[in-house]
């Protein structure tokens, strides 16, 4: 049994300690924001925050994570209001979105350590792969998030996408079987 804190909640996993943390998060905790991409730690789609560091969760076993404080994209900001999320959305950076949770987590960890990173520090700190090629806009968007974290810029919260469920669906009588 492995104990750790995930998104500020104590969790005890009853899985084999050799299980990659990615699979424990996705399958046992239903936290599906971290994606399985390559399984080798190369792509970064599975990046999460472990004790303040951006970590590729496909490469970290439950045993290695024992006692750690883990934050996933779901725990970063349920309202999608973290400065990195707001900046990426306001700058229209995401395309297909598969890699974005990992990039957001890597950027949030970088900005937690240094809210004024140079462009070179951003490029070295964000090694995630994106098949859509968002890189030209990514560095500036992360720098913008840093400015917001320092209080030097405000990113409009209205830039967040989303549909109010009340506007998207209505309860109707059930259909009868044919």
From TrEMBL:
Residues 153-178 are annotated as: Disordered. The keyword Protease does not apply. The keyword Oxidoreductase applies. Gene3D superfamilies: 3.10.20.30, [2Fe-2S]-binding domain. Keywords: 2Fe-2S, Iron, Iron-sulfur, Metal-binding, Oxidoreductase. PROSITE patterns: 2FE2S_FER_1 (PS00197), 2FE2S_FER_2 (PS51085). It comes from Sphingomonas corticis. Residues 1-76 form the 2Fe-2S ferredoxin-type domain. This is (2Fe-2S)-binding protein. Transmembrane segments: none annotated. Signal peptide: none annotated. SUPFAM superfamilies: 2Fe-2S ferredoxin-like, CO dehydrogenase ISP C-domain like.
């Amino acid at each position: 049994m492995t104990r750790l804190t995930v998104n500020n909640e104590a969790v005890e996993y009853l899985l084999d300690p050799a299980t990659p943390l990615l699979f424990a998060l996705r399958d046992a905790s239903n936290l599906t924001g971290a994606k399985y991409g390559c399984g080798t730690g190369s792509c970064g789609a599975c990046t999460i925050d472990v004790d303040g560091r951006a970590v590729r969760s496909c490469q970290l076993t439950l045993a290695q994570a024992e006692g750690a404080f883990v934050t996933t994209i779901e725990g970063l900001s349920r309202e999608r209001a973290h400065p990195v999320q707001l900046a990426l959305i306001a700058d229209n950076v995401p395309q297909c979105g598969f890699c974005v949770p990992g990039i957001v987590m890597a950027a949030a960890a970088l900005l937690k350590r240094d809210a004024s990173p140079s462009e070179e520090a951003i490029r070295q700190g964000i090694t995630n792969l994106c098949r859509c090629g968002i890189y030209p806009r990514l560095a500036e968007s992360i720098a913008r998030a840093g400015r917001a974290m320092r209080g030097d810029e405000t990113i409009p919260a209205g830039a967040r996408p989303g549909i109010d469920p009340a506007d998207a669906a209505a309860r109707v009588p059930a259909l009868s079987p044919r």
